[in-house]
Each structure stands twice: as structure tokens, then as C-alpha cells.
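input
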Amino acid sequence: MFGAYGHTGRFVVGELRRRGWTPVLSGRNEERLRAAAQQYRDVDVRVADVDDPASLEAAIAGSDVVINCAGPFIDTSLPIVDVAIRSHVHYLDVAAEQSAVLNVFDRFRGDPRIGGTVIVPAMAFFGGLADLMATTAMGDWDSADEICVAMALDGWKPTRGTRVTGQRNAGRRLIFSNGQLTPEESPLRRRWVFPTPFGEQDVVGLPLTETITISRHIRTPEVRVLMNLAPLADLHDPETPPPAAADESGRSSQMFLMDVVATRGRHARRVIAQGRDIYGVTAPIAVEAAERIASGAVRTTGVVAAGEAFDARDFLGSLESAGVSVEVSVSPPGDDAAILGF
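output
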């Protein structure tokens, strides 16, 4: 895996080891790689750089799946995906950058070299989780009038990687409206009633990867992605410290709630996920995906979104062991929802 010594990367390595995998640790900095490897037995260290395709080929040789945790992904995803396809090695990443994920879909979807290779960008808290939830909400619907993803965090202590990625991705911000990706003129602002413990809050539109992945495979003219304001204030404050471990798992005390609503006519379907630490929870999402890909438990191959690749409802159910609670409800607007659960 690439970016093994970063904050999220360390969570992913730990999750791989917990599940019995022997990861290959890769990245540009040999000193940091070897320091990360000292925590584990029997791990291989392979230094590689995205500007050196031969080093990338050597790094992934003999692997089942490449997990890319090395941001900014606008710099790393395309060269690693290209080498993965040529090497017939499956690929997934944890990108939250619209441009990086869009580049992967545009560059490689339909590439005749792919064959049976599976490429899943944004397989993380941002991107993958909401995509699985939206796919679950759709159920037997073949289309929806709108998919709305609302996120609430009780705060956001950004990693250095998050800050660098934000600086590197100051370009266009895209929304999906009227059936097409279009530049955002001004962020959508509204009130959103979250379940307990967040309640009613102001939210603002964000250009995240959910916009790209959901619009690629769910038939809907509108995709809205929103977040409450408190974590964004933390993110934009240069004095906000990085995340700190709250227990032996390494996860912080940050709480999240993701609320995904699909509407069609007078009917609405809602999926809610709650848990702790958006960086920490990315590890079981990415590793569960890697295990399913390696075992052949995928619905299709090529460059695909999470909901295309996997049985979305079953995948969400698997995250309960990682402390993510999920509820699914179906109701006409104004009626009490019937909780279906898992």
C-alpha cells in the first residue's frame, strides 16, 4: 500500500494486520517507511515514487490489491492506476478530491487494458460510504429525483495531509445538477434536521467525491452534498491542531453522522450511519473493499464506484464490527419512517 506512514495509512496498515494480511509498505520516504514497519513483523518495505513507473511496478509486484493512501491524490492516483492496470493488480484509494476521482473515471473507464481488474476510487469515509448508502437507499428504484448527502461532525482536527490536499486542490468546484456536472457558482445553504445527537443545524454544500461517484451510476438529475458548519470552521482555522488518539485504537473522539436521503415523487428513503473518527473509520471501509475484491466478491470490473462494485447493503452491515451503526428507513414525506435495519 502507498502512503503507509501517513495518518490514515497507519490505520489501514493496522486493519490489514488485524485481519491477517501481510501488507507491502510503500512510499517515497524510506526513513519513514522503515519507521512505520518497525511496529510489525514480516512486512516488506518498497520505496517508490509516482515519477518513476519502474519503482511503482516493483512496489506492487506480486500484490492482490493496491491501496493508495498517498495524497494529494491529484498527483498520485493516475500514475499508480496506470501501473496497476498494466500489472493486472486491483486498485482502490481513499481520495476525497473531486478532481482526482473524476480524472480516474475519465482517463481509465473503458480502457481496453483493464480486463478483469477492479479500480475503485474514493473508497473511504468521503466518497465510498455515502455511495454505498445512496445505493442502499435506492433499493429497487431505477431512478430518483434527488440524492442528498448530509454530514455532521462535532469537530474536525485535520491531518497535515488534509491541509496539503486542500492547498493543492484550489481549482474548480463541481456540483451535479440538471443531470450534469457543472461548476458551482455559490455553495448551497440550508437547514438540515439530523438525528440525535446533532439535531437541526445550518449546512453548506461541499464539492466532495460523493458528487462524482453517485452521479456515475445512479440515475438522478440532482446530487447534493452538505456539511454542518462547525467542522468547516475548524478546518479553515490554521491553529486547529491535528487529531489526537482518544484510546488504544488510535482513533480520536470525533463523532460523525452521515444522513443520505433518496427522494422519488412523494416518497423518501433514508440511510443513516454514525460512528467515530472519519480517518480511523476509513481503514475498515478500504480494507473490507480490498478483501472483497481479492476474493472476487464484486459485481463488476473496471473503474467503478463503491455501490457498483459491491453488495451495498451487505457491505454496510459489515461495518458494524468497526463501530459504525447503520439504519435504513422508508417513508412518504411527513410519515413516520419504518426502520428496516440490518
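quick obs: The longest strand covers residues 255-264.
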